[in-house]
Amino acid sequence: MSVPPPGSVVVADWHRYKDSKEYFSKILHKKRRRNFGLLESPVMPPHVAVDTVHYKIFISGKSGVGKTAIAARLAGMNIPSMHHETTGIETTVVYWPVKLKESSRVLFFRFQLWDCGENALRRFDHLLPSCKEQVDAVLLLFSFTDRTSFDDLPNQLAKWSEPSVRRVVKMVVGTKFDLFMHCDVAERDIRDFQETWGIPVLRTGGEVTDGLGDVASLLNCLAENLWHQDCVTAGSASHHSQETVTLL
């Protein structure tokens, strides 16, 4: 599936625009990101009707690349200072308002992030099928400070491109980009990878701020690719149904 050009489906940096404040205020509490439980959601006033679209996201990558940290970052939570292997499956709910470029329609995207420790996946056969079940997108992580995690990306992509796997959005995220003194992956490698696989590589790292800017590009890119996939799928489904009607 083709990747939409950045900013072609959703309004980029909409969080900076005045008309977004009413929506983004619902995911903030005292100027910090509000944490949502599994059954919680942003509450808009009655006169503002906003649809919510739900997506399941699996975070994949070697142990230590920062899977738990990126889930915390995207949710606006504190990143653990010490690395501990995730012992089972952890889920994190992230709400993100988006304005569609073509229609100016506003949607709340509800991302349920699934994070599972690498050792747990190896030990318990049922965990990976649970993570893959009805999944909409996978974030494939590598660390800029761990060359082997970058070299393993083609193997990870191959697993998610098998015919038995339902169509999922695939995005690659490089973590610990701020630790450039210890960087094991060159910009040339990133460019070559993007040209070969046709998948954008996003970068993250550094301290989490109270603002929205350090996660906006990643969450907007995720929303854009998921909405684009849904539109392509819906288009092919309606085309198929029209063909069926014609045949009848």
Mean pLDDT: 82
CATH hierarchy class name: Alpha Beta
Supply the helix-strand structural class. Answer: alpha/beta
**Rg over C-alpha atoms, rounded to the nearest angstrom:** 19 Å
Family: Belongs to the small GTPase superfamily. Rab family.
Protein name: Ciliogenesis and planar polarity effector 2
GO molecular function, one term: GTP binding
Organism: Neolamprologus brichardi (Fairy cichlid)
Report on this structure:
It holds the Pfam family Ras. It is found in: Cytoplasm, Cytoskeleton, Cilium basal body. One of its GO terms (molecular function) is GTP binding. Belongs to the small GTPase superfamily. Rab family. InterPro entries: P-loop_NTPase, RSG1, Small_GTPase. The protein is α/β, with parallel strands linked by helices. It has one domain: P-loop containing nucleotide triphosphate hydrolases (Rossmann fold, 3-Layer(aba) Sandwich). Helix content is 33%, strand content 21%. It has eight helices and eight strands; from the N terminus they run H-E-E-E-H-E-E-H-H-E-H-H-E-H-E-H. The chain has helices spanning 21-24, 67-75, 118-123, 127-132, 147-151, 153-159, 187-197, 213-247; strands at residues 28-29, 32-33, 51-60, 89-99, 106-116, 137-143, 169-175, 201-203. The strands form two sheets. Strands 4-5-3-6-7-8 form a six-stranded mixed β-sheet. Strands 1-2 form a two-stranded antiparallel ribbon. A hairpin with a 6-residue loop joins strand 4 (89-99) and strand 5 (106-116). The radius of gyration is 19 Å and the shape is globular. The model is unreliable at 239-248 (pLDDT under 50).
